[in-house]
Design goal:
2 copies of one chain form a homodimer.
Chain A lengths: L11 H11 L3 E3 L6 E3 L1 H20 L3 E2 L5 E3 H5 L2 H7 L5 E9 L5 E13 L4 H11 L8 E10 L13 E11 L2 H21 L6 E4 L11 E8 L5 E9 L3 H6 L2 E3 L5 E3 L1 E8 L1 H10 L14 E7 L4 H19 L1 H10 L5 E7 L4 E6 L5 H10 L4 E5 L1 H6 L1 E6 L5 E5 L5 H25 L1 E3 L3 H10 L2 E5 L4 H11 L2 E6 L7 E2 L6 E2 L2 E5 L3
Parallel strand pairs in A: 3-7, 15-17, 15-18, 21-22
Antiparallel strand pairs in A: 1-2, 4-6, 5-6, 7-8, 8-14, 9-10, 9-23, 10-11, 11-14, 12-13, 16-17, 18-19, 19-20, 22-26, 23-26, 24-25
Chain lengths: 511, 511
């Protein structure tokens, strides 16, 4: 079997692309920097959406859909905002095409005002909230949207940084500064639990420095994760926008005090970049590794046989095994739907869209193993003629490569769920241990530089200062990832300037 | 209570907009022809997505995501296709903005080739399928995407025709012409059952004439529905694309005969226009009317009281009623989540995201009635102090305005589901009766003209001919909506030309 995935130590960036390609998650498209998310990759996004959307609705949010295009005059209204986004906007200038002399299409019907494809939608939400909100009784407004956005990035990388990407953006409006701050932190907490419970990616919650905050925010908070190359990846952000956008778009309400006043707003988002985080946090040199909760296919049953007699015997046994794992009714439904197909897909959880696959394709067993391994399927159940005789099966666990033997009688939906829960917990634990092992506390700038050269997170006393951050970035390429909420207490001396500070920061190279 | 909805007979187009406004389904946005889908409207789209997506997956399809932007050179490759869409494309020509002398933003960094915002994605799918498909073993490819698309329409109307809209587009590739044809009809069938079972909108399935088909298709099929103003609305289309796009994008595979050959492809889609259909098929002069399966809020419980004593007594009773309808566990979960809120939202079906609301707000009962009525909530349960004494409640059914009295002891999840199923069936039946009553069979062109002037569907023998269709359209504004699959058999004389034909067509004015 040709090795189609380079190892992480040999070439980490290439390994990342190889894993994506082998698992058929995404492809580059003919438009520079835009990707095609293939079905296997999109199923991960659907799983992420399903779980996050439930968490949003549980915290009282509703979904809506705002337009793709934004008038440029809207961007102009918030000074920081326009500085942050103007340089990378896709601009729509015309509303039709015509053939030129050579028969090729060119733009025609120039628009009175150029429009940009939304890089983010604070401005449009601001504009509409100004119309919807009149009184404190109309507050809070708690709206989220799932949408595509576009930022014309120069250097792109599948999932991590693409010109177009999918995301969700929550936009809320509140009566008081305190409520807005509570919402900002609540949603950061939702992201943090989601990342840890669902993606098995441990994250550090904290505040961004002024130089790293969202253009137009008062304060930006983020969750930061460590990838296997020990770089940081910002996995989600939550912004307290103060009254900045409410002022720019005149979002006012009559308060309980009978005074007209501006709302306090927040915004928060995560994107398809989470799929990049998922890949880089867990996968190995054999390909994709998925945490059980995220995996669209939880387990693949692979029958192993040589002769026709063996085939018949093993397949019949594998069907029984599938029925034991998923329930007889679900097996029957699958057999009806997939009659005549070589892959039998049996749901284990319709709501979560999770399934077990029985792989009855012809072909060498080793090729099937690679097939499921590269696609990150958490469990592979291997069954050969001797396993049938012993009324047993082999369970291969993707994330640690372990092989264990089990009696067929133990197979049940509960057993499968328990295996999944155990692996889910161990994957989070492994990622957490990896992060801890690659985090150092330093006490001087020299130590910091040495540590950053090694990779990983560097934690130290730091007195926030944009100029100092710029200098560190220039000298080490590292940035403050967050000022973590968890602080040791007390004060210390900034490792760069020696000034007294009450805060430690985490520095790292980042995606 | 001021009447904020004009009647259908007085001004049908204004009635439609009033219903949307009163139910807070959508708003126009600052970009001409683009709409904001508000939470109440988006919840309808989510319900549609949920139900359709399940049907797509049951028929073996998977979701993916393709890029928003398409190089203009792609559009050029299929001659009919470019003719159909070039006139209404939003064109991206630049990739950043800069301030001009006056401080305003203008486009800069012109792109080497203009890009259009997808009006539909056959070209991109064709391009990618050419890379993914090598052999007949790679077929069929059955991919759907949920996405936004843009067509720069001149005359827009909320949901029915907007520059940007949301839709799904299925794109499949097959080994044989027959398989592609089967897929085309299978998906039309999926749309038809979805429209009837879920939206309670009866539809006629049939083929479009050459003049009405999709630009680039061999044949287009559609489902057509009748609105209350007796106009037709095309609610979904399914296209057999033959080998047209496979040739244009060189999608080839090595067949079982070891010959390299082009695939046979299909595409099919429905859009947020379905929400327009839903509104116009069922709503009345009081506002939105939703079929129970679509309704995010299935029932509202409205306590009626004057004194504090009454309030306490009635509210306690309403909680019991809510518990009886939704189950005690769900009520307990809702009371925990919504503690302190005036609206208690209890799920009746988490997977379908349906709920019952207990409306504990202060305010006049009549205002609350209007509130739920205008939002199309299928059932309202009214409870006053005397109902409590009688251990009863009043059930107000939105779609027919009926009021019935029930013993509290009959309230249960099954009872509620049964009420919902009954109303769902009766709404479909009512819409079907309306359509039948407004469909006439004509035997001459004069009869046709007279019938079309009255409105409704006109059925007649018709020999397909683009020139004749153009003449009819000019003289009556009507078009052939479909050549229905259901035909009387035998032959007849075309009502316009007198030529022998084996097909009857349905003519109507259309949205």
């Amino acid at each position: 079997m040709a090795k189609n995935i380079v190892s992480r130590t040999q070439d980490y960036p290439q390994w990342y692309l190889d894993v994506i390609k082998a698992a058929e998650l995404a492809d580059y498209s003919p438009v520079r920097g835009c990707m095609v998310i293939r079905p296997a990759g999109y199923a991960l996004w659907e799983a992420i959406q399903r779980d996050l959307d439930r968490r949003f609705k549980e915290t009282g949010h509703v979904n809506a859909y705002f337009p793709l295009l934004i008038p440029v005059s809207f961007l102009e209204r918030e000074a920081q905002h326009v500085e942050g986004f103007a340089m990378e906007c896709a601009v729509v200038t015309h509303s039709s095409l015509e053939k030129d002399e050579t028969g090729h299409l060119k733009a025609r019907s120039e628009l009175p005002e150029p429009l940009v494809i939304r890089p983010t939608s604070e401005t449009l939400f601001g504009h509409m909230y100004a119309q919807w909100v009149q009184s404190y009784r109309d507050l809070p407004v708690l709206i989220n949207q799932w949408a595509n956005v576009m930022r014309w990035e120069m250097r792109t990388r599948l999932f991590l940084r693409t010109a177009e990407f999918l995301w969700q953006e929550g936009h809320t409006a509140h009566e008081t500064a305190q409520e807005a701050q509570e919402e900002t932190l609540r949603m950061l907490g939702v992201y943090a639990s989601f990342a840890e419970d669902f993606l098995a990616v441990p994250v550090i919650q904290g505040r961004k420095t002024e130089s790293e905050k969202f253009p137009g925010a008062d304060t930006t908070y983020a969750i930061e994760a460590m990838m296997q190359d020990r770089k940081a990846l910002q996995a989600g952000t939550s912004h307290n926008l103060g009254q900045n956008f409410a002022r720019a778009f005149d979002v006012k309400f009559l308060g309980r005090d009978n005074q007209l006043q501006h709302c306090w707003t927040t915004s928060w988002g995560v994107s398809t970049r989470l799929i990049g985080a998922l890949i880089m946090a867990h996968s190995d040199d054999e390909g994709l590794v998925l945490p059980p909760r995220v995996a669209p296919t939880l387990a693949a049953i692979v029958p192993i046989f040589k002769t026709d007699d063996e085939k018949e015997k093993v397949l019949a046994y594998c069907r029984e095994l599938a029925g034991a794992l998923c329930g007889a009714e679900r097996l029957a439904a699958a057999e009806k739907r997939d009659a005549g197909r070589e892959l039998l897909t049996i749901f284990t959880d319709e709501a979560a869209c999770q399934k077990v696959v029985l792989d009855m394709r012809e072909g060498r067993a080793v090729e099937k193993h690679y097939h499921w391994e590269q696609r990150g399927v958490p469990f592979r159940l291997e069954v050969g003629p001797r396993d049938v005789d012993k009324s047993a099966f082999v369970l291969k666990t993707r994330f640690d490569g372990s092989k264990t033997f089990h009696e067929k009688s133990c197979a049940s939906p509960d057993w499968l769920r328990e295996q999944a829960d155990q692996v889910q917990a161990r994957m989070l634990e492994r990622a957490r241990t990896f992060r801890e092992e690659n985090t150092v506390v330093v006490e001087s700038y020299d130590e910091m530089k040495a540590a950053l050269a090694q990779g990983g997170f560097v934690r130290c006393w730091f007195r926030e200062d944009p100029e100092v951050e710029a200098r560190i970035k220039e000298e080490t390429k590292a940035t403050v990832r967050v000022i973590p909420f968890e602080q040791p207490g007390g004060t210390g001396k900034c490792v760069v300037t020696g000034r007294e500070t009450s805060e430690q920061a985490i520095f790292a190279l980042a995606y």
